Request: fold
Amino acid sequence: MLSRVALVSCRSYERGQVEQAIRRGMDYFGGAGALVKTGDKILLKPNMLAASSPEKAVTTHPEILRAVAVLLQEAGAVLSYGDSPGIGSPRRAS
Reply:
């Protein structure tokens, strides 16, 4: 089976632009509701490699994580968050 990928341009990490871009990406697959159902339990892994500012792009940008979480919750998913950083502790990397 082939994997499907959506590539969507987003020119900034401004909250509204990021959410709109993530929504457009999910729309290629029929929207968040086509990807998850109400009550689905989803673990979001933010890729917290190390304590670093979002501008250094070492980890997933917080606005990307937030936008994905918002859209999945709108679709009824129950979210958990987890990661194991490559350097240091989870508390320090967040």
